[in-house]
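Quick bug: CorA-like Mg2+ transporter protein output formatted oddly.
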Amino acid sequence: MDSTAKIHPLTLDQAYMSFLFPFSFHEKERENLADHLRKNHFTFFSLDQKDLQRGFYGEDIEVKHEELDQYFLPFLERKLFPQRTDQQGFLRFSKRVNESFTLEVHETSFSFLVNSIDVMICPFGIGIITIRTEMDEEQEKLSEVLDFMNHFRVLEPKLDEEKGATIRKDDREFNTTNEFVFGYLCPSLKAYIVHDDKRAGYFGSLPFFEDERMLSSGFFIADGEHPISGDQLYRMGQLDGKNPEGRPFMSSTNAEYIERYVQNHVHDRWAPDSYTVTSDHTQITVSIKSREQLARPLSQFMGTHHYNLLLHYFYKIMLLRMSFEYSEIQWEQDEDYVEELIELISKFSSRYYFGEVSSRTEGKELTKTYRDTFHLNSLYEEVKQTLHELYRAQENQSNKRHNMLLFMLTVFTVVSGIYGMNLVIEDWKGKTDWSKVPSYSFFEWISLITALTGISLSVILLLTTGGKGLWKKFRKWKRDQYR
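Here's what came back:
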């Protein structure tokens, strides 16, 4: 039996691709960032503005705001689509680009159009840039499109197979996607992004950001001459475009393995005309229907499905972030950060993390796919265990402080009891004559030391407690992270 997988060619009439680039920013700069985006020609997205249903998604593509409103459950809809920038939740700012570029790699070039970019200001100091692109030719091979997606999503190439891609615009050249995003698409945004790769409190440059690659999504319209095959779906899920020699590439030769992969990662509700494959790297819908027949599926890809994917991607980032921060805690030094991490986990779980996000059947199916693919359930269980450990550690530290305080009070109570609750020495009445202290008896020395120590400890306790409370309020005001 020949179990060697074969690559079947596929011609695409059109391909729409989106790339999600997460970043971190200081939460206290949230309002300043929103104002900055407005000044740089970004439009605040609101469901009340019907004129925003077109213009950002490509020619003749319209995203109905009513469908966005009805797709998500009411308690989540208010957070995804706030009406003002001073409200909590996800603030979306969009800007139309509509410019053509060329990506050169493997001695070939791929022409693509950037339709628009979004900057989503998410809760807890997380932001996500969405770059909407489409291929700029009438027809392209599947290998060309996948190769473009595989290279474009790499922000800083480090492996040999990732290097060599160049993005060109007229006489300008960008050697990395990171340089292209912050050097051309939204250069002014760079000032608001946290760049320090060492933990400063609980910020950083997303050290938990996997592989330094963007999450991608795509909607492919095939020419319809041949049905969609399993190896094509597998290559889409893995973004297997071309090898370094420039030939079509597939990262498996085992047909049985590919079949199992397709069964676990493909949503085939609309088969055999349309399929959706979801992996850690991408989510791609491919269809052999005509462009006219795909008006609504394209609208859903740009609208409801995009928001569903973005929301679960945010879940994944936050869960990885909390696991990372827990691993970075230095217990002897980070007592205050433990309290903040408990607050972060509690607010995220209660305000934003929901098992059900959509009332639609397809929305529930995609939600289950995202949770399985991104391993959200296991990550959430790990975070819940983290919360339990933090509470236990905090309780142990609190018990130690209480025991120490109880020990000190017990000592003073015993000493005071010995003196009949009276530590007053005759020399202390009226004006104290400190010259007589050296001639005190043994028991008078005990009385003096106990009194002075008790007064000193009381003053120190009041100062440290009050100072610590004021410091916490100042730091929270300064950082203003957990909204």
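Actually, after a second look the formatting is fine. The first strand starts at residue 11 and ends at 24. Closing.
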